[in-house]
Design brief:
The complex is a heterodimer. By secondary structure, chain A is α/β, with parallel strands linked by helices. In chain A, 47% of the residues lie in helices and 7% in strands. A five-stranded parallel sheet of chain A has the order 2-1-3-4-5, sandwiched between helices. Chain A starts with a helix and ends with a helix. The longest helix of chain B is centred in the N-terminal third of the chain and has 51 residues. The chains are: A alpha/beta, B mainly alpha.
């Protein structure tokens, strides 16, 4: 009798959980038609054990690094775990989450966003990074490190608490994609065909004010390197090329110092624009801040060569598993 | 820790687990620990106040009780040797001492409450007096006290206990920890209900067995409370605040709608909070006193106040109204007035003198009722807040109740004259309608900045009715169309359930339904609260209004 009662209670609890999970899934933004970078984190888990190279960073990575090109060029299998305004601490937890169950050969950390201070909090961006992240200790720590003062951890753990106000704007897509996810990104890469030329002329950094890296940024950059090294994973620090003056050579110097301390390399690819062949009159969708599809292709070709030359990576060209995966991506890319 | 937070949900869950794991006999200890942990979340400094109340009330009750025991033993011992007069004199001496102890207890506890609650109010008047009388501008600085959580509620509860012990209504509690639980029981500490020792103590200290059905029932009650609070009250709050802030621009129907919505808001807010308190207590096997009984279906103001915040009403009735109406001075005053009327105008006078005679006789009869009633309403007003508008609100209630009572014969004559059916649906509806709007209009004092502003709002209700445009409600007064529709539906649901409740517990009816239907009802309730509730980022979910009293 007691067991029967217990089963009924468990069954009822399961129904309750299913109800809450379903509501969560319905009300969470789907990031299908807009803000597609919100899908990057979630889509990672589809084939999370496959990727040899993990990229972490902000929007410059998911607009500038095309894993399909990396594969086609040098057989590099990779995934971009970046989001708009992704801070160094979120990148750290993205790496921690990625290597929890799978050990990649290389982790490439983009430093573009290191220029923002410790107090940088942008809830929509944090949400896009974290909404799709699977529940884990990394996720909880990431939430704690990222949320603003007036936010609650529960609003992240139970997204319904945050998104229930969307009841006024729900569309058919919210129900359609509650349990079914159509792929939106190319292994985290988001192609953008727009062209909006940057101001002509040579790039001159003009960062105003304090150019000291903030303690939290430094801490998480160090922790990222240490984490990878402790697992025997190669680390590469880089800055995706852009034509934005919002940078300083002081940043490069400080990052160089940290990189040297750990014996890892750091490259600001802004210095290789000519070598890469970037033309900011056609290769950018937003006057130089990011790369468009053409720019990403050029940079990814160059990056593939650079990574192959400088790191020990496996060529997956002949591996059927990877070939199939990238053929699917190729189909998606051309669709 | 707010009732509307995941922290509270987790706290209750953890407390429930520990409570039911603990041996039955000592489960009250878990309740005490949980209550103190809960109280600790409001600020460790607040402990001082609740501890003073607990210890002082316990000690005073103990001393009063000891005096009673001393009296019993003494009289028993000297049963034969004492004359009737000596016994009477001894008893009077003991009673005097007990009264002194009671006075000390009441002074300490109400002193703290009054000092914390009304210090700034008093300082404002002292400063004003000094300025106007002596031209002094060296103002006394305000204290800006932050009221300890639930101080009004636990003070009233503790003082009720002390007075009851004084009158010998109950045997005093001998265990200070058990008494501490009575004072601090966490579900009711934020906004009541104000319980009586005789009712609550046995519930708190009894041995409770785990019963899933009771937990389920409590959970329903909590969800229903959250529905009223989050879906109705907090949704309407912005419109009410916005309209009252812009009443110069939005008059007539806009204000009338705000008045109506405020009635719904405060009912949803307060009764919702009480539902949460009662539901949580029920999960622990503790039955709390109901605080509302469909007040909006009352047919008179007196009835309304018997059905709204019932525990505060009965508290005032038992500890202010009755003691005052039985006060020798007040009874004497009534008698003197009657005698004066008789002497001055004579029993058999005619004309104006007869009228004056009748008036003095009636007034003499009513004084022992109206003076205590006046005090009750004055205190009720003061209890709600240290602002004049609350006092005025309380006095208006008094005036309306007096008018209602005095005009009742005329009303009955009219009913008789026009051959109206007093018990018929139309007359009942008329009385319910009248009472609802009268009480709603009085609440303008609640939502206005001050007394003149309340009168101004009242005046504005009757102007510019033609200018009403619902689009302004949607676009300029913080109640978008979708929210307006949800609010109207939710209010309708609340009233339908209130109506069903007249014929017995709604939850019991639900539990008699087939299981899938029960699940459907609960799922709908949970979905309604979690989806349509005003909570979380992007919403300014207000704390419970009565929590501030």
């Amino acid at each position: 009798m007691k067991i029967r009662k217990l089963i009924i209670i468990l069954f009822k609890t399961a129904i309750g959980i299913l109800l809450v999970v379903t509501l969560n899934r319905i009300f969470m933004p789907k990031y299908i038609n807009e803000n597609k970078d919100g899908r990057i984190t979630q889509e990672y888990y589809r084939n999370s054990g496959l990727w040899d190279v993990i990229f972490a960073g902000s929007s410059t990575v998911h607009s500038g690094v095309n894993p399909l090109v990396l594969y086609q060029e040098k057989g590099i299998s990779s995934y971009v775990r970046s989001n708009a305004s992704q801070t160094m601490w979120i990148s750290y937890y993205m790496i921690e989450d990625a290597i929890r169950c799978h050990k990649p050969d290389l982790v490439c950390i983009d430093t573009t966003f290191i220029k923002y201070g410790d107090d940088f909090v942008e809830e929509p961006s944090t949400r896009k990074s974290l909404d799709g992240m699977r529940m884990s200790a990394s996720k909880i720590r990431c939430i704690e490190a990222s949320m603003g003062e007036d936010e609650s951890i529960w609003d992240y753990l139970v997204p319904l608490f945050r998104y229930h106000s969307r009841w006024k704007e729900l569309t058919l897509d919210d129900f359609r994609y509650a349990y079914y996810n159509k792929p939106v990104t190319i292994n985290g890469y988001l192609p953008d065909d727009e062209i909006r030329a940057a101001q002509p002329g040579e790039l001159v950094y003009e960062k105003d004010g304090d150019t000291e890296l903030s303690p939290k940024n430094i801490e998480y950059l160090r922790r990222s390197i240490e984490l990878c090294q402790s697992k025997g994973i190669q680390v590469f620090l880089f800055k995706v090329p852009s034509h934005s003056p919002n940078w300083s050579l002081d940043y490069d110097r400080q990052i160089d110092e940290i990189a040297a301390e750990y014996g890892v390399s750091y490259v600001n690819f802004d210095a290789y624009n000519d070598e890469i062949g970037l033309d900011y009159s056609v290769d950018t969708p937003d006057e130089g801040s990011h790369l468009n599809t053409a720019g990403a292709e050029r940079f990814s070709e160059y990056l593939a060569g650079y990574l192959c030359d400088n790191f020990s990576l496996r060529d997956r060209t002949e591996d059927k598993k990877y070939r199939d995966a990238f053929e699917t991506l190729s189909y998606l890319m051309n669709r | 820790m707010s009732f509307i937070s995941m922290d509270f949900a987790l706290f209750v869950t953890a407390a429930l687990v520990v409570y039911y794991v603990f041996p039955q006999k000592h489960r009250w200890v878990v309740l005490l620990a949980a209550s103190y942990v809960f109280y600790g979340f409001s600020g460790v400094a607040n402990f001082a106040y609740i501890l003073v109340t607990t210890v002082s009330t316990f000690v005073c009750a103990m001393l009063i009780g000891n005096k009673g025991t001393e009296q019993k033993e003494y009289l028993k011992e000297h049963k034969e040797s004492l004359t009737k007069e000596e016994k009477k004199s001894y008893k009077a001496g003991i009673k005097k001492k007990q009264r002194l102890i009671l006075a000390v207890g009441v002074l300490i506890n109400f002193g703290i409450l009054v000092y914390l609650k009304y210090a700034d109010w008093s300082i404002a008047y002292i400063n004003l007096f000094r300025l106007s009388r002596f031209g002094r501008t060296d103002f006394i600085p305000f204290k800006n006290f932050i009221l300890p959580l639930g101080i009004s509620f636990y003070t009233f509860q503790a003082m009720g206990y002390l007075v009851d012990i004084y009158y010998g209504k109950y045997e005093r509690e001998h265990n200070i920890f058990k008494f501490a639980l009575f004072v601090s029981f966490f579900p009711q500490i934020i906004q009541g209900p104000i319980s009586r020792f005789g009712e609550l103590a046995p519930e708190l200290y009894k041995e409770v067995k785990f019963d899933f059905n009771r937990i389920r029932s409590g959970f329903y009650r909590v969800m229903w409370g959250l529905f009223k609070k989050l879906v109705i009250a907090d949704r309407l709050a912005a419109y009410v605040t916005e309209t009252m802030a812009q009443k110069e621009s939005y008059k007539g129907l806009y204000i009338l709608l705000a008045v109506f919505f405020y009635s719904m808001q405060i009912y949803g807010d307060f009764s919702g909070g009480i539902d949460v308190a009662i539901g949580v207590a029920e999960m622990f096997g503790v039955k709390l006193h109901e605080n509302f009984e469909r007040p909006f279906f009352s047919k008179s103001i007196s009835e309304y106040w018997q059905r709204w915040h019932m525990t505060l009403g009965t508290w005032f009735k038992d500890y202010i109204f009755y003691p005052l109406s039985l006060n020798k001075g007040i009874i004497k005053l009534g008698r003197l007035l009657r005698e004066h009327g008789e002497k001055r105008y004579g029993k058999d006078s005619r004309g104006l003198k007869k009228l004056c005679y009748g008036f003095t006789q009636q007034l003499g009869k009513r004084i022992p009722i109206y003076i205590p009633m006046f005090m009750v309403w004055f205190t009720t007003g003061m209890w709600h807040g240290s602002q004049n508008r609350y006092v005025v609100w309380g006095l208006f209630n008094f005036v309306f109740i007096v008018l209602g009572t005095e005009l009742e014969p005329i009303s009955l004559k009219l009913v008789e004259r026009f051959k109206l059916n007093e018990a018929g649906f139309m007359m009942k509806s008329y009385r319910v309608f009248k009472t609802f709007w009268l009480m709603s209009f009085l609440r303008i004092f609640d939502i206005s900045r001050d007394v003149p502003s309340a009168f101004q709002a009242f005046k504005y209700i009757f102007t510019q009715w033609g200018s009403f445009n619902i689009v302004n409600v949607y676009e300029n007064l913080s109640l978008p169309k979708e929210d307006f529709i949800v609010a109207v539906i939710a209010i309708a649901v609340m009233f339908i359930f209130d109506l069903i409740q007249r014929k017995g517990s709604v939850r019991e009816r639900i539990f008699r339904l087939p299981v899938p239907l029960q699940w459907m009802m609960l799922s709908l309730l949970v979905t309604a609260v979690s989806v349509f509730g005003y909570y979380g980022p992007g919403y300014d979910a207000g704390s419970f209004i009565y929590g501030a009293f």
